[in-house]
Amino acid sequence: MQKNAFFVAILALSFGCGISKEIYERDTKALMDQLNQSDQEKKALLAEKERLMNEVSALAKEKGSLSQDLKLALEKMEELKQQALKRKQALQSLKAKLQEMVAAGKLKVRTDRGRIIVEMSEQVLFDVGQSKLKPEGKAALDELTPILISLQGRQFQVAGHTDNTGSEATNWKLSVNRALEVTMYMIERGMPPDRISAAGYAFYAPVAPNDTPEGRARNRRIEIVLVPNIEELMGFEEE
Fold first, then answer.
1. Residue 52, burial from CB neighbour count under 10 angstroms (0-12, 13-18, 19+)
2. 0.90 exceeded by the pTM?
3. pLDDT for 147-204, tens place per residue?
4. DSSP 8-state code for residue 211
5. What region does 202 belong to: left with phi over 0, alpha with psi -120 to 50, or beta?
C-alpha cells in the first residue's frame, strides 16, 4: 500500500510538471528496481541477523557448558589439593610423634608413591636370618603401636623385605614370617586386627643395590605402610 501511494504521488507530480510518459515509466521502473533491491537487501540482512543470533545463542550454550566443565575441573583440583595437604599434615604429625624414635635410629618415616611408610631395620627387630623378635624390637614396637593406633580410620600393612642372599624360597618365607611376627605382636599390644595385615616381598622391592653390605643391610627391613584410602586416590565413594 505504501509503495502504491508513493507511485501515485510521483505520477501526479510528474504529469503536473509536464514530464513525458516515457521518462515517467523509465524513472518509475528505476525506482521499482531500487525498492525491490532494498527489499532483497533487507531480507538478506534479516537472515544474517537471525544467523548471527543463532550463533550467539550456540556460543552462549557452549560457554555455559565450558564454564561448568571448568568449574568441575577446578573443584576436582581443589579436592586433590586438600587430599595432598591432609597427607602432608599426617606425615608431619606422625614424624612429630615419632621424633624420639627417629632420632634414636629405631625407625625412619618416608613417603613413596603417595604412601606414608614407617621403616624399621632388621638390626632393631631381628637377628640375621631369624623371624623371632628381639627384646629391643619388642620395645620399639611397644612405643610405635600406640602412636599408630591413634591415627583414627587408618589401615596398616606390615611388609617384610630381605636382601638377595640365599634362595628365593628362603627369602619369601623369611619376609612373610617376619611380617606376621610383627603383626601379631602389634595386635597383642592393642592394634585392632581389622586395621592391620601382613605381606612378604622377599628381595623383590629393594631400596638399595644388593651388591654392597650396606645396601643389603638397608634392604633387610620391615615397613609399616599407612594404606591410602581408595576414595582419596580415585575419588570413589561407597554406594
1. exposed
2. no
3. 999 888 889 999 999 999 999 999 999 999 999 999 999 999 999 999 999 999 999 9
4. T
5. left
